[in-house]
Amino acid sequence: MRGGIMIKPEGELKVSFGYQCNSNRDSSWEDSDEYETLPELRRNSSFSCLSGAALSANATLANTNICNGLIGAEILPSWDSPNSFRRVPSSPTLSRLDILSSSLQSSMSNLSCSPSTPDSDSYLLKSMSPPSRSEGFLNAMEVQVAGGAAGEDRVQAVCSEENGWLFCAIYDGFNGRDAADFLAGTLYETIVFYFKLLDWESSQESIKASSGLDLDGSLPCIEDDSNTINEERFLSQIYTDRDSSVDNVSKNASCAKPKISTDSFRHGVLDSLQRALSQSENDFLYMVEQEMEDRPDLVSVGSCVLVVLLHGKDLYTLNLGDSRAVLATYGNGDFMNGSERLEAIQLTDSHTVDDEGERMRVLCDHPDDPMTIVAGRVKGKLKVTRAFGVGYLKKKKLNDALMGILQVRNLMSPPYVSTQPSLNVHRISKSDCFVVVGSDGLFDFFTNDEAVKLVHSYILSNPSGDPAKFLLEQLVVRAANCAGFSMEELMNIPAGRRRKYHDDVTVIVIILGTNQRTTKASTCV
């Protein structure tokens, strides 16, 4: 791979890196040092490329000392690659989650996180003896990783070129970046771990339900319409990144009973995502309790969470807060000839007090507290109703760590902020074009329809361009117009002061289908 080159066209944001997929290069395309060539994606991939960009508005410390400095000093440097996607081979550094998430182990290591209990998943794992996380798909073979920080936002992308899956996450931090940093350093591997647990639980259920397994040891299968997908093969693509030549076999293929429905398996994937998030929340709040004497500000630090997992034709989303994933689709129309109008479909829920359903849920959860929502904020503090962290709105002893006006008065019935995520799985069709994934800063200036139209028009006129970077440029233009500045004047305002005019903004555009295009990502800090 060639190193990324910083380009500075007049009036544009800095670009940190660019990719071009190798499998469908146009014959007229000329090699350029501006782009990095990727190996061909497998045909079973439902995405052709992605484009990511991030713009900071908040002034935030680059790294914190949470978790005895392990997050900032050792974990994040293994993940962060703001200037290029890079290959990650088997690496002991990335298995440091075994130290951080000690509630999934029998020992506490050198870092205290949430302790194990007999009812926890870690207790269950003692009897199953699965491969350690360092033996999971992340380290078994190479994957591509990219990401970085912009203000209090963090963005992450991990993809397997060989098996065609993609993991993207946006962590929109607030009151500091510690929670977003913690998520960036731990959540991905925690999700991988719970996928392993799902695999083990599924196999145990199958063994119990079929004491008469075939002599050849055939494993349970998942049935989906005309295809039957071997469950262990499916999971091993996620866990071990192995090449599978039998992703899809006919219904007539030899397969042991019982069979597991695809809907049940998808539910298991969503449940695993939720359990991983809950585990990370417990670990983070326990860490906060251990360190709040020296850093009481940690009790107010939080983050919105948006995770997108694309595997095969299934697009899974998990979200807390007000970040969004918006699908651009033609419905039943024809993408190629444009016979139908492109529609913007929001795949995620917005968890804010502005949403009537969320507002009523919060009020109903606290019927005896007349001050549940004050001045359009939960307890007068937070606009989002679901979030990671923000322990002072979830536990009284964490609120008590704050002094004076920072403390929430009359914390009658915590928790006031939920960690119950919205979960969704969308089956990708030929009419689906792309997905815009963004933090709320993007949607402060653009509606879903506007974002989709801008990306679509840009893709049509710039088939090898960077739609995420373009979307950020349009946001800066709009923010500058609203403030009465030129784009250059706005961008010359230092981070911190510029927060008055726009939020930290992170955008990922995932191009669906098999039309290979340039794959880019950029971080402008």
SSE topology:
Blueprint: E1 17-21, E2 36-38, E3 47-55, H1 70-79, E4 81-88, H2 97-100, H3 121-126, H4 137-140, E5 143-150, E6 153-160, E7 165-174, H5 178-209, E8 220-224, E9 227-230, H6 231-239, E10 249-250, E11 256-261, H7 262-291, E12 302-311, E13 314-320, E14 324-329, E15 343-346, H8 356-365, E16 373-374, E17 377-378, E18 388-389, H9 396-399, E19 422-427, E20 432-438, H10 440-443, H11 448-461, H12 467-483, H13 487-491, E21 505-512, E22 518-524
Parallel strand pairs: 1-2, 3-22, 8-11
Antiparallel strand pairs: 1-22, 3-21, 4-5, 5-6, 6-7, 7-12, 8-9, 9-10, 12-13, 12-18, 13-19, 14-15, 14-20, 16-17, 20-21
Enzyme class: hydrolase
Keywords: Hydrolase, Magnesium, Manganese, Metal-binding, Protein phosphatase
EC number: 3.1.3.16
Q: State the strand order across the main sheet.
A: 2-1-22-3-21-20-14-15
The coarse overall form would be globular
What is the CATH domain class of the domain at 15-19 and 43-82 and 138-202 and 263-348 and 427-512?
Alpha Beta
Report on the biggest sheet.
Answer: 8 strands, mixed
Number of helices: 13
Could you report the average pLDDT, rounded to the nearest whole number? 75
What low-confidence regions span 5 or more consecutive residues with pLDDT below 50?
1-43, 90-97, 101-120, 122-140, 213-259
Predict the CATH topology of the domain at 15-19 and 43-82 and 138-202 and 263-348 and 427-512.
Answer: Phosphatase 2c, domain 1
Which structural category fits the helices and strands?
Answer: alpha+beta
Helix content: 25-40%
How many beta-strand elements? 22
N/C terminus separation? 24 Å
Instruction: Please identify, by name, the CATH architecture of the domain at 15-19 and 43-82 and 138-202 and 263-348 and 427-512.
Output: 4-Layer Sandwich
In angstroms, what is the radius of gyration? Answer: 23 Å
Q: Beta fraction of the residues?
A: 15-25%
CATH superfamily of the domain at 15-19 and 43-82 and 138-202 and 263-348 and 427-512: PPM-type phosphatase domain
